[in-house]
Amino acid sequence: MTTMLDVTDVTAGVCCTPLVREPLTAEEAEQLALTMKALADPTRLRLLSIVAASEDSEACVCDLIEPVGLSQPTVSHHLKILTTAGFLSRSKRGTWAYFKLVPGALDRVSQLLVAS
Predict the structure, then answer these.
(1) Boundaries of domain holding 46
(2) Residue 101 lies in a domain
(3) Number of independent structural domains in the chain
(4) Does residue 11 carry a pLDDT above 70?
(5) In this structure, what CATH number is given to the domain that contains residue 56?
């Protein structure tokens, strides 16, 4: 007795869904990981939120210490990470440092993750 097997034509089509846009390059993924790492801290997210909610999206470090309940050096450390990651810019006025939300910085992160 002979058993017949069905034969599938492998040349008929693609087995995987094709990409509809370019994925991140290795360099873009590395940069995004650093950016996301800067955001992956509750204190830094709160600091960004406070700065964004402040008039002209700018706040003095002296106004950021009490709301997060941390010391000035610790807050300054978090602000430095956010500045290095490109979310905030820093300007010095007298003895105080002021931090301003960089326009579009948060938009760039979301645009990389949204399907187009």
Answers:
(1) 26-109
(2) yes
(3) 1
(4) no
(5) 1.10.10.10
pTM for this prediction = 0.74
Higher pLDDT, 29 or 48: 48
Q: Note the pLDDT tens digit of each residue in 89-116.
A: 999 999 999 999 999 888 877 776 665 4
The whole-angstrom separation of Cα 13 and Cα 111 is 32
How far apart are alpha carbons 100 and 26 in whole angstroms? 30
- Kindly state whether residue 11 falls inside one of the protein's structural domains: no
| Cα 84 to chain centroid, rounded | 12
Helix (H) or strand (E) holding 33: helix 26-39
The Cα–Cα gap between 82 and 12 comes to 51
| 70 is a domain residue | yes
